[in-house]
Structures are given as C-alpha cells and as structure tokens.
Design goal:
The protein contains 7 helices and 9 strands, in the order H-E-H-E-H-H-E-E-H-E-H-E-H-E-E-E. It is α/β, with parallel strands linked by helices. It has a 9-stranded mixed beta sheet with strand order 5-4-3-2-6-1-7-9-8. The protein is globular. Bound molecules: NADP nicotinamide-adenine-dinucleotide phosphate.
Length: 253
C-alpha cells in the first residue's frame, strides 16, 4: 500500500463526449529504446517501475498492446494478484480488465500465451487488408474481432466502438513502439507515463517509444506538458499530459 501512495493517478479531469481516456505507459532506456535490438522482451526497469505498471492497470477498464508485444512474450495484460484486484474494486472497476490487441494484418499468433488465459474478454482490432483466413483463426480464440475499413486501424472509430460496445472509459496502452506511434498520430493520447532507466541499448532496429511513420515536420509533433517528475535512485518517473490539438477526438470518463 505504501507504493500506492507514491503513485501518480491518471488524470480524470477530462470529461467530454467520445472515446475512452487513453494513457500510455513505457519503460525506456536513456536513448529512448523500449528493448534491445533483438526486440525480445527483457525486463530492464526496476521493481518499482513494474509495480507502477500494475498500479496503472488498476485504473483501466481495458489494457491494450500491439501484436508483437503480445506474441513475442509471455504476456497476459491482466490485473495481477489479489492486492491489485482489491484496488480495482475500491475504484469501482470490474475485477478483471478487458484486453485489446491491435493487429492490422491479423499477423497476431492465435497460439500466443494470452489466448490461454481466459479470465476476461480479449478483443482484437484489425483492418480489412488482413487475410480472411487469419481473421477467422483469431475469431476462434478472441471474444471479438473488430475490423477497420481501411488499410490502417481507424483509432478514433475503434476507440468509440470500445466505449459504446464494451463500456470502456479508461484504456491503458502498454506499447510497443508501433502502436504508440499510431495512437500519437491519431491524436488520441491523453497522458503518457515514461520511466527512464539508466541504460543505453543503441541499435537502429531497437523499438523506440513511438515508431511507425512518425511526423515529417516539427509543427506536427505531439506537444506534451510535464505533469510530474520523480527520481528514485538512478531512475526517472515522468508523467506528461498531451496538449489537445484542434479537432482532437475527446475522451469520455
Ligand atoms: N519497454 C516497454 O515498456 C515495452 C512495452 C511494450 C513492448 N516493448 C517491446 O517493444 C517491442 C514490440 O514493439 P513493436 O513496435 O515491434 O510492436 P507492437 O507495437 O507491439 O506491435 C506491432 C504490430 O501491432 C500491429 N499494429 C501496431 N500499430 C498498428 C496500427 N496503427 N495499425 C495497425 N496495426 C498496428 C501490427 O500488427 P500486424 O503485423 O498484424 O499488422 C504491428 O506489426 C518488443 O521488443 C517489446 O518487448 C517494450
């Protein structure tokens, strides 16, 4: 519980119509990488940071990740043990969060570990460019597969659907780099939690905080405001709010 007192809760100040409130959490090296160039999941941040991740999940109706984060590791995106479930209950949330996986071409492995963990619904977001066979294979293991019309996930539309159909008001995205980049490009992120661990990985192939297409011009960059900064030993815990742009799809709490 002492850990919970040090924890910065998500900002619930925004109450507008539309999509869920979206917050992202990453642990990164000082050079901005989410993993070494092997891209294999290796926990490199402190136990305190791993505790932070679990505490952030206690505020989420849904936890979301990209296909590679899910199928390259033993990931279940669940709420964790009894202590965390009690925190969820105290906040009026369901015992288990919904799990959302983004896989634009439905390349997500239907045999991934997450599909063996049946404690809460698993929703896959994909696109119409995905091969039917792959989509059908995922339909057999997921509770729902939502298909966006174009070649890319239409995040505002998909998030609205999650809000309406699954009553998801708060959604935590846990990476990796490609899905984070897509959410920033779609301009739907409200808050960003970044832990900077005192390591450098290097490597042009290592995933970074926001990958994918990115922006071409500085003027199109996502603008952040520092909400809080804490230091523990040699690790930094930063929380940023994303400055709303014009025509930003709004969150509903
Ligand atoms: N340090 C941390 O906090 C942290 C957190 C999470 C992950 N990681 C690391 O990050 C790496 C994984 O990151 P990653 O960037 O390679 O993969 P990722 O974002 O987890 O997943 C990429 C896949 O997700 C789908 N996807 C993501 N964004 C999409 C979009 N906008 N539209 C459609 N589909 C989208 C695509 O699936 P399809 O191929 O089906 O199109 C894509 O191939 C791993 O090394 C993992 O260990 C680190």
């Amino acid at each position: 519980m002492a850990e919970a007192k040090r924890y910065v809760p998500i900002g619930k100040g925004i109450a507008r119509k539309g999509r869920p409130y979206i917050y992202l959490n990453v642990a990164m090296s000082v050079d901005g990488k989410l993993a070494p160039a092997s891209r294999h999941f290796v926990p490199f941040s402190s136990r305190r940071d791993q505790e932070l991740l679990m505490l952030l999940r206690t505020e989420a109706d849904a936890v979301m990740a990209g296909a590679r984060t899910v199928d390259l590791g033993k990931v279940d995106l669940g709420p964790g043990g009894e202590r965390f479930k009690k925190l969820r209950a105290a906040k009026g949330l369901a015992e288990h969060n919904v799990r959302v996986i983004v896989s634009g071409s439905a390349s997500l492995n239907p045999k991934a570990h997450i599909f063996t963990q049946r404690f809460s619904p698993i929703i896959v977001l994909t696109t119409s460019r995905a091969r039917k066979q792959r989509v059908n294979a995922l339909r057999k293991v997921a509770d729902e597969v939502l298909v966006s019309g174009g070649a890319e996930i239409d995040f505002p539309e998909a998030l609205n659907l999650l809000r309406e159909k699954w009553n998801i008001r708060t959604l935590l995205c846990e990476g990796g780099g490609e899905i984070n980049g897509g959410l920033f490009r779609a301009n739907v992120v409200d808050r960003l939690f970044v832990t900077i661990s005192p390591v450098i990985f290097g490597g042009a192939n290592a995933p970074t905080l926001a990958d994918g297409i990115g922006v071409t011009h500085v003027r199109d960059a996502t603008q952040l405001e520092l909400f809080s900064l804490k230091r523990h030993k040699h690790e930094l815990f930063l929380v940023y709010d994303v400055r709303p742009r014009r025509n930003t799809p709004a969150a509903t709490m």
